[in-house]
User: Which sequence fits this backbone?
DNA sequence: ATCTAATAGTTCGATATCGAAATAATACTA
DNA sequence: TAGTATTATTTCGATATCGAACTATTAGAT
């Protein structure tokens, strides 16, 4: 569904690229969600658990910057994960403004058990692209994504 | 920020591609939002107005399928746009289950006036990629996005 | 013509998401 | 060291977003 806007060639190209990028992302995520690879967890909850599993404990602000979410949002997501007993908040004694967020045993077990299915779903959905195409897409996205910084 | 997951080469590639795609999309949209090219409107509201401007009046379900949103969501967004007097609901006499959603004059004036700024912001943000790279990115996204259909 | 599908939209309850304002703790500065 | 600025988190109010259950209308089937 390209745009119906009529502008210069440069504008049309940029706009169509923008639209296709967003649609690819949205529809890919919708297809992944439909595969139900993280039952009982929201996407945000899943992302937080995954970050904690693979990157280790960190404070909320770090989580927010890794996941590109606001502090307010992270507060809520951690609240909900805490209610589910999947993560815990611990005051950082070195800086009492911070909470150290880490996985509980239950959280670690859960994310460890569902992550492989998530990976398989991604592999399956991305299989419409050859490995070289995936690499190329990743490179272009990287270039576009970090116009700001890492 | 590539994954720290250790799987097969195929898994690692797919996962990294997936992460880069999502990050590119999120960070691009955040940078566009920071440019404040659609003041007073949410992204969803903007998208609906834009679809109506460029594609013409349509019913809610059509809007949802163009924008990849649920019916419930479209109902709310249209409610809010209606309160702002930017769109109107009119019963379709041929099928009274449907509302025909169209821009009011105020809505048309507004979206017409801000859309060019939006395009310029996209052109500026995408300028880190050469035209051929934008084309390539768009092609790869198209291929990935329509694993299902149109 | 009646009964059943399917379709369009709404409502509900939960979670997400943001920006702005508020609070608490730490760092910096004069 | 007192005073200010910065940082981490929370709270608030608004909008977004989904799936599921519901209502109303239309389409299809016998």
Assistant:
């Amino acid at each position: 569904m390209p745009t119906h806007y009529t502008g210069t060639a440069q504008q049309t190209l940029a706009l169509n690229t923008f639209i296709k990028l967003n649609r690819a992302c949205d529809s890919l995520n919708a297809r992944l969600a439909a595969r139900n690879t993280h039952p009982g967890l929201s996407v945000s909850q899943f992302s937080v658990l995954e970050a904690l599993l693979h990157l280790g404990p960190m404070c909320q602000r770090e989580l927010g910057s890794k996941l590109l979410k606001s502090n307010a949002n992270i507060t809520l997501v951690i609240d909900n994960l805490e209610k589910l007993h999947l993560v815990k908040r611990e005051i950082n004694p070195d800086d009492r403004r911070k909470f150290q967020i880490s996985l509980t045993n239950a959280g670690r077990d859960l994310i460890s058990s569902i992550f492989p299915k998530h990976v398989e779903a991604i592999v399956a959905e991305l299989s419409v692209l050859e490995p070289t195409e995936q690499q190329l897409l990743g490179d272009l996205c990287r270039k576009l994504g970090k116009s700001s910084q890492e």
Notes: The mean pLDDT of chain A is 93. The two ends of chain A are 32 Å apart (CA to CA).
